[in-house]
Automatic annotation (TrEMBL):
This is Nucleoside transporter YegT. The gene is yegT_1. It is found in: Cell membrane. Keywords: Cell membrane, Membrane, Transmembrane, Transmembrane helix, Transport. The chain crosses the membrane at residues 32-55, 61-90, 102-122, 128-149, 161-181, 242-266, 286-304, 311-331, 337-358, 379-399, 419-438. Coiled coil: none annotated. PANTHER family: BLL5896 PROTEIN, NUCLEOSIDE PERMEASE NUPG-RELATED. The lineage of its organism: Bacteria, Pseudomonadati, Planctomycetota, Planctomycetia, Pirellulales. Its main location: membrane.
């Protein structure tokens, strides 16, 4: 039984007890690493290729159940889950069942929602199932992180190593769908429903594996009664007190602005690369995650050497640059230029994601005191991954409907050029607004 590895560990919220040297020490970390791997592998199997599947079944194509512009709105389902997630995870902090068992239930529910989506006969059913999936799935990210933090004695040093296995899982998911499957079967599945079916199997496997995770009992009843949950904090006067601080309010506005260009790539990147006949597109797109690991290792040094604002501007600039590259690809007739810029746009993901998302998390942690830290991070999730990404998804869907035809994959290069110029312009505008109006606050400014 997994719980025997950590007998005597304090309940969730307390510090983990040091583990004895030997096989149990390695066994614990191996189990946590595999759990983190499966957590990201299951989503990476199908989310990257979602836009390609929708495009292949839009209008008169394939199943014909989707309308033009739906790809952007479909990706936005994750944003709805992100908005609900802080409230759900806050309520789950008051849970009366172990975290490992709660993860099992959530993964099974996520698999059920994905099964409904796979068998959907209408766009409304498909979208509703996607929203249901992400409401179940997104809380598992924070629960998995909390479980890992709880069981690692030196989590500051060891957590990044365990978390890296999540990135490895995402990379191998792309390799599975984009390279391994076509290599063994002789045909691509990036426009098919198959990746989502693989995702169902992976979610079930994740649920079963939760039985192998270290037992993580709930907080003691006395602790639960004394501590307010994140949900209560977000609904209480703490939120107003945080927003009344100019530094925090400005930081949340910046987080919202920085998120606006993102969903164009997440919703249409794989579709576009397949349209350009980039072989094994899903596998090659994982090069961005490999660069992401390197950027995360460099981030602490860059924050000290060049400062938070410069790093943030570099990240937003990378978003503008990658969309500019994709627009040039659409307008270029030179094969070498097209190939080089396609790979450049993929590789820029590491800097674009890390220097914006992770930097903002660090900044919010710095300007909020310990009393407000959990609430501030919850607000950051709502403003960036929630409202920001949702608005971005709507803008992407409108741009598709306006600039591309219902048969998205068959549009002429000129229309794709116009499409990519939209997020390029949004990124450039956000860069200017942040450069002019954002000044990072001091550490622990709010207390």
């Amino acid at each position: 039984m997994a719980s025997s590895v950590l007998e005597g560990v304090e309940p969730a919220g307390g510090a983990a007890q040091p583990n004895p040297p030997g096989s149990s020490w390695f066994s614990l970390r191996r189990k946590l690493a595999v759990g983190m791997f499966l957590q990201h592998y299951s989503l990476g199997l199908w989310f990257v290729t979602l836009g390609s599947f929708i495009a292949a079944n839009t209008g008169d194509l394939g199943l014909g159940i989707f309308t033009a512009g739906f790809a952007g709105f479909a990706v936005g389902a994750a944003s709805i889950g992100a908005i609900a997630s802080p409230f759900l995870t806050g309520l789950l902090a008051d849970r009366y069942i172990p975290a490992d068992r709660l993860l099992l239930v959530l993964h099974l529910l996520a698999a059920s929602m994905l099964t409904v989506a796979v068998n959907a006969a209408s766009q409304a059913t498909f979208h509703t199932a996607l929203v249901g999936f992400f409401i179940c799935y997104i809380p598992t990210n924070s629960l998995t992180n909390a479980l890992v933090f709880h069981h690692l004695p030196d989590n500051t040093r060891e957590f990044p190593i365990v978390r890296a296995w999540g990135t490895i899982g995402w990379v191998l998911a792309g390799v599975t769908v984009g390279w391994l499957w076509p290599s063994f079967t002789g045909h691509s599945i990036e426009r098919a429903i198959t990746p989502m079916k693989l995702g169902i199997a992976a979610e079930i496997l994740s649920a079963v594996y939760c039985l192998c995770l270290p037992h993580t009992p709930p907080a003691k009843l006395g602790q639960i009664r004394r501590k307010s949950t994140l949900a209560r904090r977000l609904l209480s006067g703490e939120t107003l007190e945080l927003l009344s601080a100019p530094t925090m309010a400005l930081s949340l506005v910046v987080a919202f602005l920085a998120a606006l260009p993102t969903q164009f790539y997440y919703g249409y990147g794989n579709l576009y690369f397949n349209h350009l006949e980039l072989g094994h597109a899903a596998a090659k797109m994982t090069l961005g995650q490999i660069v992401e690991v390197g950027c995360m290792l460099l981030l602490p040094l860059l924050l000290v050497r060049v400062g938070l604002k410069a790093v943030l501007l570099a990240g937003v600039g990378c978003w503008a640059l990658r969309y500019g590259f994709l627009a040039i690809v659409a307008g270029s007739s030179t094969e070498t230029v097209r190939v080089v810029l396609m790979y450049a746009a993929i590789l820029l993901h590491g800097a674009a994601y890390t220097f914006v998302s992770i930097t903002l998390q660090v900044h919010v942690n710095q300007v909020s005191g310990s009393r407000f830290r959990a609430t501030a991070q919850g607000l950051l999730v709502i403003c960036s991954s929630g409202l920001g990404h949702l608005t971005s998804s709507v803008l992407a869907g409108i741009s598709e409907r306006t600039l591309l035809t219902s048969t998205v994959g068959a549009v002429d290069p000129e229309r794709w050029l116009q499409f990519w110029l939209v997020p390029a312009a949004i990124s450039a505008s956000c860069w200017i607004l942040i450069a002019v109006g954002f000044t990072p606050g001091k550490r622990r400014q709010i207390s």
